[in-house]
Amino acid sequence: MHMTATDTTAPSTPAAKHSNSAPPKPATAQRAPKGWGKLARTMLIPFFLCAIMGLFYLGAFHQPTPHNVQVAVVGDSAATKVFAQTLQDESDGALTVRTVDNGESARQLVEDREIVAAYESTKDSATLYASSAASETSANIAQKVFMNVAYKQGQPFHVEDVVPAGEHDSTGQGLFFLLVALSIGGYASAVPLAGFMGKVKLPIRFAMAAIAAAVIASIAVIVSGPIYQIIQNHYASIWLISWTYAVSIIMLGMGLHPMLRHWTTPVLTMCFVALNFTSSGGIFQPAMQPGFFGALNTFWNGAGWLHAVQTLVYFPGQGIGMDILRLIVWLVPGAALIFATHAWSVHKTRLANENAAIQEVEEAVAA
Fold first, then answer.
1. pLDDT tens, 118-133?
2. Using CA atoms, how far apart are residues 207 and 345, in angstroms rounded to an integer?
3. 3 state SS of 99
4. In whole numbers, what is the pLDDT of the chain averaged over residues?
5. Helix residue ranges per DSSP H, 154-275
6. Is residue 42 helix, strand or coil?
7. Span 345-364, mean pLDDT?
8. 72 - beta bridge partners?
9. Domain housing 297
10. 146 and 180, same structural domain?
11. Is pTM beyond 0.90 here?
């Protein structure tokens, strides 16, 4: 008699399966990084801009103090020479005083921008020769100094503006604000052009900079000329000077961008706003500023542009050769940087191609 083994295993049911298996663990969502480090690094840019603008603008403009301001006293008598020397000694370095023979010589020196002002005292009155076209702020400071002198001498005082500012530029600072427009147009154009220049050959890069500078110079001349009439002559010369100035800034930005990347705009702002406008002489002449800004005025491109254009507009006949030379020299760094970054890019591309070729050979040998 055969006995049949009975299967005592409990039948499998869906409920049983559920009760015997471990409950599934909920998937933990991985948090995306918040990017605080990147934000902190990015915020360094506005903090940097705030610092440099505050330091350089306030450093240049907050307390204009005359030092070695060139002035003259009219007269050739011994008393006049003693008066001039006394005036210089009492100024404690603020004034450098010379004497000139007559009022005509004084006017000529002011017109040639060799002196800021000249003081002539007669029996009946005192006259100050100055030029608001050269610098209204310097003329005003000289006026305050010699007005006190005339008051002590008990003489009526009046000012003769030898070379006045234009009818449509009463403060004499219109050209300075034209410099602002050119500078901003220049460095703002550099970054988008730099982002595109990797797609084109080297000659096209220079052509892009030249065309952008031509548009910027044209806008500036049209706005300051036909629209606001700050300049009323020498349009072609001023356009060419403005083009040279703008293209130097654009090429510098294009050359720096491959190295500085997102720091390009802050660096250009420091060079062509914070340092450029403060040292240009458009608000205060170097003799009214700390020595650092006076030193920059001797070679910075904004000062060269302003002096050249001011000469053409208000002091025709005076030379601008050194100003033009300065602007041309400023073309060299930008052009050199564009050449250098192009050569480095070509070098990197060649290395990448060589490495790719070597890898293909190695893979073929291994196969």
1. 999 988 899 999 999 9
2. 19
3. strand
4. 89
5. 174-197, 202-222, 235-260, 264-269
6. helix
7. 61
8. 98, 118
9. 174-350
10. no
11. no
